Amino acid sequence: MTHLQAGLSPETLEKAKLELKETADTLHQDIQEVRDMIITRPDIGFLRTDDAFILRFLRARKFNHFEAFRLLAQYFEYRQQNLDMFKNFKATDPGIKQALKDGFPGVLTNLDPCGRKILVLFAANWDQSRYTFVDILRAILFSLEAMIEDPELQVNGFVLIIDWSNFTFKQASKLTPSMLRLAIEGLQDSFPARFGGIHFVNQPWYIHALYTVIRPFLKDKTRKRIFMHGNNLNSLHQLIHPEILPSEFGGMMPPYDMGTWARTLLDHEYDEEPDYCPESYTLSAKDLEKDLSPKNIKRSQSVVEPGVLKRPEKVRNEEENTQPLLSLD
């Protein structure tokens, strides 16, 4: 075991070897091979290239050198292309702070049996008069940056539960295709985290319609890990034990305190209330045209027009759907 693996428990060390093909004897060589590829992308500013940083990208891509480098490049490219998102990128930024205090994201104390951290989002908590969807995305990315420092989570990964209870049609109308694609690019394509499952509970029909919009942009691996539970929490409990879930998800733990994770990040600054007026984050006209081009949306036009939610003629009753969209690998 090298010093780069010092933070791993024996169980996680074995998991990294079996699942990720991580080998102590070749670890430094693996890292160097990724680092050597940096010269092939002079258009990107690689602001951090130390061993520990590159290692998290190798773990996220199971030590496939090329895929790890591509993820590393996309990580910095995403930040270069969305500079406004990463200005004042810290917990005390007014928009990030407001989102954190409303539980975007919430982070459960207990890990799941696979050692994964469980993130929870209560969608109806979004106060659109105080912060934007991009502030929520920034708060989630900032939180992941903090948690991914833990080598255990680099190997074991995360699980996400989104509760859509009381999330209104008006709130959903603010989730435009451009904003959703921005989130997909930031979380799926540009961040070195392993997501073992994304669970939707209590979702109304218009959330299923939104999923139809974004589905073409999701990788097959991501789609296989998205589960639509409706209001059938038993199917959620088959994958995540109720012993570690808060009561909102039919679990045995107390109701989730939305400020738990925010207090961890903000500490004594949690109670300070800065003045903040949310501003809409907009893509350039060129990017917007690309996002909403016929090529990108043709697979979803039959259900939802760009930026407009329409009730399908025949809506599947998600509350009766107790099966995932696709099974886990």
UniProtKB/TrEMBL annotation:
Bilayer topology annotation: Peripheral membrane protein
Keyword set, alphabetical order: Cytoplasmic vesicle, Endosome, Golgi apparatus, Lipid-binding, Membrane
CDD domains: SEC14 (cd00170)
All copies of domain CRAL-TRIO, residue ranges: 96-257
Basic and acidic residues: bias regions: 308-319
Signal peptide residue numbers: none
Function in brief: Required for normal morphology of late endosomes and/or lysosomes in neurons. Binds phosphatidylinositol 3,5-bisphosphate (PtdIns(3,5)P2).
PANTHER family linked to this entry: ALPHA-TOCOPHEROL TRANSFER PROTEIN-RELATED, CLAVESIN-2
Name by which UniProt lists this protein: Clavesin-2
